[in-house]
Amino acid sequence: MGGSEFKKRVPALVAAIVLLAWGMPAQAISMKECSLKYKAAQAAGSASSWNDFRKQQCAKDISATPAPESDAAVSETKADAAAKDVQAAGDTKSLVFPSAVSSKFSTEKPAKARMHTCLEQYHINKDNNALGGTKWIQKGGGYYKLCNDKLKGKT
Hints:
The chain is mainly α. The chain has helices at residues 3-23, 31-44, 50-58, 71-89, 110-127, 143-152. It is flat and about 65 Å long.
């Protein structure tokens, strides 16, 4: 693309960016918040159908939405979520992990051998109902991550 051709396209590019930036709201109200507003309107007897209400009340621009939470509130919420993940994972100290990679997987690559060894023990734990709510893979580290780290010698 030559210099003069580029100069011809710059105004069109700038116009497209401006239209996209100003033409759409940066943030819309969440479906949960919209649902709460709808239920309140229903209780007051002024709600129309869900689809009409959602289009009229919930798709408004960013100026109608509440201000974002402060950094402290956001970090508090993240800490609460992390604590819930740990509780949901159960007590990892009571989980049983293999002490070494199983010899029947010795012909496989190390990563795959660890995975199959962990999966074999996971199924044994699952049959014995000894997982304590821990899933194979879950946010914050499931059984596979914990087992893999143990077999690698990280823990």
